[in-house]
Amino acid sequence: MEKIKLFEIYVFLPLGGKIFLFYVAFIFGGEYESMKEQVLQQKQAVINEIKENIENAKSLVLVDYRGLNVSELTELRKRFREENVLYKVYKNTMMDFAFKELGYEDILESLEGPNAVAFSMEDPIAAARVSYEFAKEHENLEIKVGYLEGEFMDSAKVQKIASIPSKEVLLAKLLGSLKAPVSNFVYMADALAKKRAEEAEAVEA
Q1: Which of 41, 46, 69, 171 has the most CB atoms lying inside 10 A of its own CB?
Q2: How many whole angstroms separate alpha carbon 28 and alpha carbon 34?
Q3: Distance between CA atoms of residues 133 and 127, nearest Å
Q4: pLDDT in tens for each of the 205 residues of the chain?
Q5: Enclosing H/E stretch for 24
Q6: pTM of structure
Q7: Checking DSSP bridges between strand 59-64 and strand 142-148, what pairing results, if any?
Q8: How far apart are CA 50 and CA 177, in angstroms?
Q9: What are the φ/ψ torsions at residue 145 (nearest 5 degrees)?
Q10: Burial tier of 147 (Cβ tally within 10 Å: 0-12, 13-18, 19+)
């Protein structure tokens, strides 16, 4: 394997009536190029992971988590996990590449500060709902923007859809509304069956 070559240069430059000595070093060689290539591959792997999560998610929400302490972040991750929401922290530069390659241009200007992304993998409303409910309890969590089925959402819209009940809640309400009619139907069916049985007995008699 080729060894790394180090080239050193000493430069004298006059500044402000004085002469300063600058030391400059250049590194060349196969090992250096190999390390550089490895770093590039690692970065591309992260970008590909972000793109895959974006494409597989039914919705996503970008949040700024600065100000949250360790216990609060742990609780936030727990709530996301319970709703099958993938919570990931990536470097803004990596997210910029991923979103840009997929044509998600609207989100790019929000990629400033310590950001995290919540990807909803099942319930399209889960990421928005968990983020909104947690933000009501912890003001340091800022909901920035999001996407629902590829449609861009600003903070206000994310909070608006967060009020939509989950599938479980909707199902419970539906079953509750049907409970009385179903009970009446069962009662009437039972009564009709008894009446027919009595009529059949009367005919046989």
Answers
A1: 46
A2: 11
A3: 10
A4: 445 555 556 656 666 666 656 555 555 555 656 777 888 889 999 999 999 999 999 999 999 999 999 999 999 999 999 999 999 999 999 999 999 999 999 999 999 999 999 999 999 999 999 999 999 999 999 999 999 988 999 999 999 999 876 555 444 544 555 555 555 555 555 665 565 555 455 444 5
A5: strand 18-28
A6: 0.67
A7: antiparallel
A8: 42
A9: -145, 180
A10: buried
Task: Answer positive or negative: Cα dihedral of 65, 84, 44, 32.
Answer: positive
Distance separating alpha carbons of residues 96 and 101, to the nearest angstrom = 8
Residue 103: both structure tokens together: 């044509």
Query: What Å distances lie between residue 198 and 8, 195, 201, CA to CA?
Result: 110, 5, 5
The two three-digit tokens of residue 72, written as one number: 């609060």
How many whole angstroms separate alpha carbon 20 and alpha carbon 204?
Answer: 122
For the chain, give the number of residues.
Answer: 205
